[in-house]
Every structure is written in C-alpha cells, then in structure tokens.
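Running co-folding for pyridoxal-5'-phosphate.
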Amino acid sequence: MNRIERDKRVILNTYKRLPIVIDRAEGHELIDENGIHYLDFFSGIAVNNLGADPAVKKAIHDQVDRYLHLSNYFASEPAVELAELLVDNSFADKVFFTNSGAEAIEAAIKMVRKWGNTNGKTTMLSANGAFHGRTMGALGLTAKPAYQEPFAPLLSGIAHFEMNEIESIREMVKEDTAAVFLEMIQGEGGVRPVEQAFVDEIIKLKETYGFLLVIDEIQTGLGRTGTLFAHEQYGIIPDLVCVAKALGGGLPLGGLLVAEALTGVWTPGNHGTTFGGNAVAAAGGTALVTKLLEDGFLDEVNRKSRRIVSGLEELNAEFPGVIREIRGFGMMIGVDVGEAAPLLQEAFLERHCMVNTTSGTVLRLIPALNIGDKKIQQFLDIFREILTEKA
Ligand SMILES: Cc1ncc(COP(=O)(O)O)c(C=O)c1O
C-alpha cells in the first residue's frame, strides 16, 4: 500500500487529498517521493509564511534541546518573547495563547460573552460567507449553511450580516450587540476584501452602540497582506484580534490579542489550555515575527505582490475571458476563474506548481512572503503556458 492508500485506511475521511506524496520541503519547494520539485504557492494554507526557513528551523531545534513543554504553572521564555513582539508591534496590551485558530476564536467568544454579560450585551454578529473555524462555538460564526446545518443546534446569540452591505450591518447592530467579528479579507470565502467604507460604518456604529470589534487575522495576519496585521491598512483599532496559522512558524499555535481595556475581563481560572503557547511553537513564532519586523521586509512583500498582480493583469489582457476578477492584497491574492478553478489547479499541479482553490471558483495564491522574483516569474510562466494550451 502506498501512503495515500494507508492514509485512506486509517484516517477519517474529512479532507480532499491531492494525489502527491510529499517527502520534504526546501525553501519554496515541496519535493515528492520521486524527487520531483513542486513550486509552492500554497504555503500549507498560509502557515509557512517564510517557506522552509533556516532561522525558524534553528530556533525550533534550539528550543527542543532546552525543553519541549512547561506546564502553565511556569512563565516560558519563548512564549513571553513572542508575546512581547506581538504586544510591542500592535494595538494589543496582552496575549492569550491557544493551539489553533478555532481556539483563538473560542477564546474571543468567551471574552465577549463575559464582557457582554456584565454590560447587557448578548448578541454576536459575523458576516455571511465568513470562516472563523469549525469548533462548536466558532461554527456559529462561520456563516456557511453547508458547514453549519449538519451540526445544529449551534451556539445561541449569533446573527449574520452581509459583508460590504452598509444597510445590512445598520439593520443588524442593536443595543444588545456585544461584538462584530470580521475578516479583513475573507479567505475561505473566496479572497474577498472588506471595503473601507464598510469598515468605516462599523466603526461609526461601534461609537454609537459600544460593541467590541473582533478581527479574525488567522489567515490575514503576520505579514500575509503586506503589513503585520491587515486591519492596520484600514486605520482601525480593534478590541480583540485572533491569530494562528503562521504564528508558530509552522507549528500549531494561535493567540488572542487583547486591547488594554479588556485585560481585566477574565480572572484566573476563567480560561486555560494545556498546550497553548507551547515553548517550541513559540520559539518558531519568535523567529518568524522577528524576520517580518526586519527593516524593509514588508515593503518587499508589497513590491512582490504588485509584481504578481501586474503579471496576472497582463495574462488577463492576453487571454481575455478566463480571469473574472483579481482580488486581495499582499501575498493573499484571489484569481476568480469561475468553474475552471479545479481544472486549472490540476493543470498547475501537472506542471509541478501547487496552487490552492477556494470557494470552488477562486485560485488562492498564498506563496511564502519571502518568495523570490524568479519563482514569481516561474509561476507566471506556468500560468501563461496553461492558458496558451487551453486557449
Ligand atoms: C480566517 C480563519 N479563521 C479561523 C480559521 C480556523 O483556524 P484553525 O483551522 O487553525 O482552527 C481559519 C482556518 O482556515 C481561517 O482561515
């Protein structure tokens, strides 16, 4: 039996596997069991923000030799160091570490609930099409019927608005609104950025009604969109931000970033986790965030993003009718190609390039942030080759 057959035999069937057996990663390439190199525009779904990076790997190795895990009876140096980096470079005053994105959302829900229970605010709002995770609390916010319906009843006190429809959010926000949850770019929802005017309206409503603004930066955070956090580009200050995916440098780690005004909401014992803030994951995360904060690093992300987008625009001019829309910013770019998305993904794979699809119609380009110009050109050349053949 090969690995794919063994996987099918013993692992529950919840994921759609690609028909390739990966042996190892080098830089921005994945190498399969036959030694074939695949250009990685997938990054483990926005986890490996620096590809297979030597500094991140070294930090992880070094921490493995110190200790793997301390119980939360002790302050752990890597967790403290990572939290310092996050706090010193964001709106947040404190961090609560989790193991995953969904758990960061769960933590936000619990913080909102406790805060709301003392303020008479009981309803949480999220956008239709949003993805905030699949645990039972987070699933209530993940407003996609296909994900929600089989698992009803979900957490009560949640309602949904239409993203980028000002009338819809005006209608939904009321005196009892405790929080609005928002992705700055809906990732699983098709790489759909929230519009500035819509965000401005939320801020206006927040000033009137006094709810909390919770930004889900699980996918958009940590340099992915060209700033450390995507919300910075909208000129807003959230109350809570959820992070995960890239946070552990490739290891499981999430976090809830908390504004100063909310740091007293929980008291000891209100929430906890055995592994949240694990030392090895935090060491990987510290190496990652240190790199993101280096002078000029994020400028380069933006320059290379423009290069990808202008290459895509050229292809669109050359082969009209395939690309419906190019969306997103930084290294989170969605190319809406309609029904052709799965076929194009397959064509990329045949040419040894990994791209992800989302929402059925969108090629989601999420390469490592430090991908080189040559690799970008290689990707664009492959896309041109595919379009030439299919034209
Ligand atoms: C925006 C967003 N929120 C939450 C999650 C859930 O994170 P996790 O899969 O780590 O639970 C994801 C995962 O894709 C995500 O993209």
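Result summary
The domain at 54-292 is CATH 3.40.640.10 (Aspartate Aminotransferase; domain 2).
Residues 297-318 form the longest helix (22 residues).
Job closed.
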